[in-house]
Structure formats: structure tokens, C-alpha cells
């Protein structure tokens, strides 16, 4: 059977033209960045010691922060979905607050918390220094991105009928058993989608990382920091190389999300 298309009206043609113009603009901007350096220049920049260090550090810190996000997000999202408790609305606002904060503001808040505040003073007295270290990168990535993981995971849990868990309990499952054997398997696609998006955003986190971890070459230099540092010093090819990697990660992440995140909301 051949698919039949309706004759475009002025209304539909206008909206399609606007959509096409936007797509062309976006593709042109991204393509212009990727194609700006010659291929040999791009390869040389991608294989430089600085960019390789930034790739390695970004992969390690984002993997750790994403793992922490999953560990925290699953129970929090489940509690917000299934349980009623005093102050739930306020808790929901607090959990989602970092989503509304500019990353630089989140970075300032973290810097004060782990710096001159009582908590920071106690940590330093105990020999634990967070500020301007690799650990600070993980902390900043976690703080900014755990709300995304919570929202995506919560959306996945909301699509699951609570009656499935109730039936499992009537058949002898404990609360934990029903959660592990029924709810988690049904939420797998949403969890995978959340994992990928959270990991991608962790790798791309800049503002909070810049303020809490600093921008030290070959020490706290993640890929976004590498873009910032190389733009600041006029090393355009290295900045573009780091940008190309981030674009590739974002593209792959969105493709995976489209594949596994059916019906799952990010915001």
C-alpha cells in the first residue's frame, strides 16, 4: 500500500519551511565547526597529549558521577513515584532545583559549601580537600546531573502499573523482591535512556566544574575545560578537536535515547 500525502496548504507549507530553515541552520553551524580544520590538522589535534588526557579524565569522571547518579536516583525516583510522605512537594522542588540553576551558580554554591563553610572546614581538618581536585569534577557533575537521572527514572517508574508489584507481593514476594524482579526489569529501557543522557551531560558539564575544580591543564582538564583553555590561548584546532568529540558523544547519546527512551521525559 502506497502512503498518500495530502496536498500542502499555506499553513502546513509555512510551518514546514520554518522547520526546514531551522534544520539547515543547525546542520550548517555544526558542519562549519567540524569542517573548519583540515583533516590532518584535526587528527593531529585529536591525538595530542592534552586532548587525550582530557578524553581520559572526562571518561573516568563521568563514569563515576553517572554511577553515583544511578545509585541515588533509583531509590529517590521510586520513593517520589510510589510513596506519600509529609513535605513531598517541597522535596520534589528541592531535588529539581539544580535543573533551574545556571551551572555557574551551582558551581559557586558548591565552592562555598566545600570551601569556607563549616562542612569544608571540617573536611579540610580531616585531610579531605575537594576544591580544585579531580574529586571536585565528580562532585560537580553529580550535583548538576543527578536531577536529570531522577526525572528520567521517575518517568520510567510512572509508566509501570503499581498493580504488578501488588500481584507479586500477593504471590509471596517481599517489597524488595517485587521491586527487583518486577519493577526494575520493566523500567530497564528508561534506566538505560537516563544513564546515557546523564553520562553525556556529565561529560559536557562546564560551569560547575570550572568553579569547583578549576581549569588546570593536564590536571582538571576535562573536554569542556580543554575547549575553554585552548580558546583562551588561541589554540583553535585543539578547541575544535575537543568540541568534535563532545558533538559525537551528544549525537550518539541522543540516538540511544531515541532508541530506548520511548515515552520517557527528560524535563
From TrEMBL:
Protein localization: Cell membrane; Membrane
Keyword Transport part of the UniProt annotation: yes
Signal sequence, start to end: none
TM ranges: 12-39, 51-80, 100-123, 130-150, 239-257
GO molecular function list: ABC-type sulfate transporter activity; molybdate ion transmembrane transporter activity
UniProt keyword terms in alphabetical order: Membrane, Molybdenum, Sulfate transport, Transmembrane, Transmembrane helix, Transport
Domain ABC transmembrane type-1 residues, every copy: 55-257
Protein name: Molybdenum ABC transporter permease
Domain of life: Archaea
InterPro entries with a match to the protein in the record: MetI-like, MetI-like_sf, ModB_ABC, NifC_ABC_porter, Sulph_transpt2
Membrane topology: Multi-pass membrane protein
One term under GO cellular component: plasma membrane
Family: Belongs to the binding-protein-dependent transport system permease family.
Record-linked NCBIfam families: Mo_ABC_porter, modB_ABC
One Pfam family matching this protein: BPD_transp_1
UniProt xrefs under SUPFAM superfamilies: MetI-like (SSF161098)
Amino acid at each position: 500500500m502506497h502512503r498518500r500525502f495530502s496536498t500542502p496548504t499555506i499553513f502546513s507549507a509555512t510551518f514546514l519551511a520554518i522547520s526546514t530553515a531551522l534544520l539547515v541552520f543547525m546542520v550548517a553551524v555544526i558542519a562549519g565547526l567540524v569542517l573548519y580544520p583540515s583533516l590532518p590538522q584535526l587528527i593531529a589535534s585529536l591525538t595530542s597529549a592534552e586532548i587525550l588526557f582530557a578524553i581520559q579524565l572526562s571518561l573516568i569522571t563521568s563514569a563515576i558521577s553517572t554511577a553515583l547518579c544511578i545509585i541515588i536516583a533509583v531509590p529517590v525516583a521510586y520513593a517520589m513515584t510510589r510513596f506519600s510522605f509529609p513535605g513531598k512537594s517541597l522535596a520534589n522542588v528541592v531535588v529539581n532545583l539544580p535543573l533551574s540553576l545556571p551551572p555557574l551558580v551551582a558551581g559557586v554554591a558548591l565552592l562555598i559549601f566545600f570551601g569556607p563553610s563549616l562542612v569544608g572546614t571540617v573536611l579540610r581538618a580531616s585531610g579531605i580537600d575537594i576544591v580544585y581536585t579531580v574529586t571536585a569534577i565528580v562532585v560537580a557533575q553529580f550535583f548538576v546531573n543527578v536531577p536529570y537521572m531522577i526525572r528520567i527514572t521517575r518517568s520510567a517508574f510512572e509508566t509501570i502499573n503499581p498493580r504488578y508489584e501488588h500481584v507479586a507481593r500477593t504471590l509471596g514476594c517481599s517489597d524488595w523482591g517485587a521491586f527487583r524482579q518486577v519493577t526494575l526489569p520493566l523500567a530497564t529501557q528508561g534506566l538505560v535512556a537516563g544513564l546515557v543522557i546523564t553520562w553525556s551531560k556529565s561529560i559536557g558539564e562546564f560551569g560547575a566544574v570550572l568553579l569547583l575544580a578549576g581549569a588546570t591543564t593536564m590536571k582538571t582538564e576535562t573536554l569542556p575545560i580543554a575547549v575553554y583553555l585552548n580558546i583562551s590561548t588561541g589554540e583553535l584546532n585543539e578547541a575544535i578537536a575537543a568540541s568534535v568529540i563532545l558533538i559525537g558523544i551528544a549525537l550518539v547519546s541522543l540516538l540511544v535515547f531515541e532508541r530506548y527512551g520511548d515515552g520517557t521525559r527528560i524535563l
